[in-house]
Amino acid sequence: MMISHCTSSTPTPPTLFLAPPSSRQRTPQLLGASRQSFFSTGALSLRFPQKKWGQILRHSMFLSTRPAVKDGALSVDGKDVLTGVPDNIVVTPLTGSSAFVGATSTIMGSRHVFKLGLIQDVRLLCLYRFKIWWMMPRVGDSGRDIPVETQMLLLEVKEHEPLDEPIYVLLLPLLDGDFRSSLQGNSADELELCIESGDPATVTKASQKAVLVNYGDNPFDLMKESMKLVEKQMGTFSLRETKQMPGILDCFGWCTWDAFYHDVNPEGITDGLKSLSEGGTPAKFLIIDDGWQDTSNEFQKEGEPFVEGSQFGGRLLSIKENHKFRRQEIGAPSSEPTDLKEFVSHYKATFGLKYVYVWHALLGYWGGLVPGVSGTEKYSPVMRYPVQSPGNLANTRDIAMDCMEKYGIGTLDPAAASQFYDDLHSYLVSQNVDGVKVDVQNILETIGTDLGGRVSLTKQFQEALEKSIAANFQDNSIICCMGQSTDSIYHCKQSAITRASDDYYPNNPTTQTLHIVSVAYNSMFLGEVVVPDWDMFYSLHDAAEYHAAARAVGGCGVYVSDKPGHHDFEILKRLVLSDGSVLRAKYPGRPSRDCLFNDPVMDRMSLLKIWNLNNCTGVLGLFNCQGAGSWPGMEIAVKENEDISEISGKVSLTDIEYFEEVAGDSWNGDAAVYSFKAGSLSRLLKEESMNVRLGVLQCDVLTVSPIKVYDEKVRFAPIGLTNMYNSGGAVEAVESCNEKSTSSLVLCIKGRGSGTFGAFSDMRPKSCFVNSEEESFKFRTEENLLTVTIPPRMTSWDLFISY
């Protein structure tokens, strides 16, 4: 066994050793009732401090027990993590709770698979790439449940006593030099480490920093602290909280893709923007998706039947727009737009758009650039034929990728990447375009042969792309898409928005629940680096409210892809204010802690709960995702007489992480809970839970507001605009503004948007004023629910409540 050490100014690192081979147990040590050992056939362990029920600790501040060498095993307070680890495994201490794990081989190679040990009888959550472009979650309890291409592995480790809270162990496969790591299990329940370069000429014998292992008592703190460590060590990406946020995140948008697909055209865009505006939910940003570029496709001949997949053989002829956006109809008035700039300017002036983005692929188009034509020759494109890794081939095949393998990609010279992006983006800026959605990003991992490999090539293109975005656009104006490999994620230095799941498929009823669950779980990882993008959706659809509620709690941008005139404005007006803004929550929406190791799609019993925070309230989305779809490769038949039409669950205040941010130090533990679905208000104590029940594809959004005592006499908690899914997002601040000359209590609530403002109040107020105008109010004594009407078209307001 090789052990390497690093020196830094961090606290004293853990002391590590492994027993000599003769003293290691070769028989797997299965987990007993105490669940002491969850990796076997190796020797890596951690012991965790015991905690009493109800303690609220922070991983980075309180877990200070350090690993130590003892009795031939890597242990911390005696808890084995890996036992019987092969001699070629390398452990490098990092901090008091973390270490790098790597491996060495006796032969040089561009791809290695190493065994790390046995996993059994421990709850685990994997985020893995089920397609080359996209991740989804998988839960289980043993090594065989860990899919190929796992990019995050989280374990829940129980302590001895039933009431002891669990400890969480996180394993993050990393990039090490020119090699990218992933995890996988096998049929013997062994955890394996795969490292690969994607280039037969880029070889190694070792990767010493292939995986970060860290532990803590809060999975969300653990994820955050671990990503901070990785960012500091790698220096190749930045965390979400440090990035400039594009303005589109706080606006309602419309994307042309599912409205028109490749048939997008200027007239259709006008019709779509017009119908949204006339319905009272004006779009403030527009994404002109695939279909605007100047392309050719040798695999689609005019007059011949369409061949599915042939669209992925199209290539870019030039960086300019196609004939649909550069023409003038014969006999049309001279004032009609004639090029992309005039069309974009017309949309902005007519419909009040703030931002217009356009789509392009990372390599220009799906099939890259057309070689040997004047519009692309300066970028020296050559035909390359993608080669997928064994890991990708082991999971779900993708028609786009399969077709690109068949048709090839006109790949621009990596040395010309900066020039290509700068030419394209500067041209778009000259056309009054504000930003781009950059798709097909993971393609680079398949064309790294003779180009230094996947990691090096991704780094080169990502740096060139982000340099151009910074130089040409003013608002960090990029949405990344089809880029959920760690090659891309760990080179995301500037980009702040990334699509977080496979596409929204409006015509496939079995994918609606999978979409919501995938984004929520993927956000555990992606949300530390970017704002996860939940994709577009139809507002007029059987699952429209389901998707709308998810966006309301997702902390993401909100945009639809409705066909012109096909809208459900009742749903849209629960998301969008009259000025085209949205009530975006503060953080990426993620599953509640008690959902992390459940399968809310297929276990027939679990609801999905997604938590978030606003300025003054918490918000909790509830979703029944059972019975409407199955994970790829895991289809199961419904048992005879099995009734999963309704699922019940429990909700408590502990479902919302970091609730103390809005509750404050003086909070006594009570909260008001408003159900959007029921339109009812309840009071919930800190130690209590409430029962909920939802049918298939049903959802609810709970606004959870801490009840605070003002002037020692009034208990009050703002709910916000009860006509909006994320009601509490409308409340920006609450403060007491008493006049010393009177004994009256006056509460001032600052907010935005119009509709019905609601609040918990244990006393009936004397009066309510909105922006100095007295407004009538209602008070339901049985619920302590106070409601006040905020007049229409009011974008911001001060509400004064006098007692």
From TrEMBL:
Pfam families: Raffinose_syn. Gene3D superfamilies: Aldolase class I. Residues 1-23 are annotated as: Disordered. It catalyses: alpha-D-galactosyl-(1->3)-1D-myo-inositol + sucrose = raffinose + myo-inositol. InterPro entries: Aldolase_TIM (IPR013785), GH (IPR017853), Glycosyl_hydrolases_36 (IPR008811). Residues 7-23 have a biased composition (Low complexity). Its EC number is 2.4.1.82. GO terms for molecular function: galactinol-sucrose galactosyltransferase activity. Keywords: Carbohydrate metabolism, Glycosyltransferase, Transferase. Belongs to the glycosyl hydrolases 36 family. PANTHER family: GALACTINOL--SUCROSE GALACTOSYLTRANSFERASE, PTHR31268. Transglycosidase operating by a ping-pong reaction mechanism. Involved in the synthesis of raffinose, a major soluble carbohydrate in seeds, roots and tubers. This is galactinol--sucrose galactosyltransferase. It comes from Punica granatum (Pomegranate).
